[in-house]
Amino acid sequence: MQYLNRDTSLSADQRENISFILNEVARLNGIITDLFKVAKPRKLLYQNVDVRELVERCRKSNADLFSDKGIEFSAGFEDNLPLIEVDPDQIVQVLINLLRNSTEAVAEGGKVSVRGYIYRGGDREVVLEKERDMVCIEISDDGEGIEQEDRQRIFEPFFSKKKGGTGLGLYVSHSIIQHHQGRITISSEPGDGTTFKVYLPISMPRKGGEFEAGHSPR
């Protein structure tokens, strides 16, 4: 199909139809991939990683999206931010998904920001694990915001208000964070932007290793 799309003898209508088919195939492939992640999550490969490095990977992945909409992206981190103990590839997947949601929510020239800091309490939706502190990664945008009834369902499977959305991205992200013994929350008001907060355990003084998903890596 991709080879057909490069055929110079095709008409504009034919090219448009082929592009539509390719986009639909990519969308369906994404749905199938997300369903597999939910149905059979793989083992988590824990490493001690720097939040800054994870965010930088996500920034590079979304650079074209930021550029296309003229989005002002900024990132700031608390001094001496400790390492977190996570599967880096899975957390990058979560952060990329959240950044793309923010990018789609803002207008041309909008703002998206990321902050990283030690969580010291105060969020009613987060229960701090005994003897284990957390780092919070906060992703905010100045988009149109989300209605309360939609916020309450935002992490449900197949719930989406986006055209062509599968409703699986945030559900999978929520599942990944839960498997890391973390938390993910959302705060938003219509017309006042949206903020996602991802809470992840600070690394313990031990070597990284392989652990079953859903079990605390201690």
Overall residue-averaged pLDDT value? 79
Structural class from helices and strands? alpha+beta
Strand order of the largest sheet: 2-4-5-7-6
Q: How many beta-strand runs? A: 8
Radius of gyration: 19 Å
The end-to-end span amounts to: 49 Å
- The coarse silhouette is globular
In CATH, the topology of the largest domain is named: Heat Shock Protein 90
Helix content: 25-40%
Task: Summarize the model shown.
38% of the residues lie in helices and 22% in strands. The protein is built from seven helices and eight strands.
What structural keywords apply?
218 residues; alpha+beta; Heat Shock Protein 90; five-stranded mixed sheet; three-stranded antiparallel sheet; 8 strands; 38% helix; 22% strand; disordered C terminus; His_kinase_dom; EC 2.7.13.3; protein histidine kinase activity
Overview of this structure, please?
With 218 residues, this protein is α+β, with helices and mostly antiparallel strands. It has 2 domains: 2-38; 41-211, Heat Shock Protein 90 (2-Layer Sandwich), CATH 3.30.565. It contains 7 helices and 8 strands. It has helices at residues 2-5, 12-39, 51-61, 63-69, 88-105, 148-151, 169-179, and strands spanning 44-49, 72-77, 84-86, 111-119, 134-141, 183-188, 194-201, 209-211. Strands 2-4-5-7-6 form a 5-stranded mixed sheet. Strands 3-1-8 form a 3-stranded antiparallel sheet. Strand 6 and strand 7 (194-201) form a beta hairpin. Helix 3 (51-61) crosses helix 5 and helix 5 packs antiparallel against helix 7 (169-179). It starts with a helix and ends in a 7-residue tail after the last strand. Residues 206-218 have low confidence and may be disordered. It catalyses: ATP + protein L-histidine = ADP + protein N-phospho-L-histidine. It is an enzyme of class 2 (transferase).
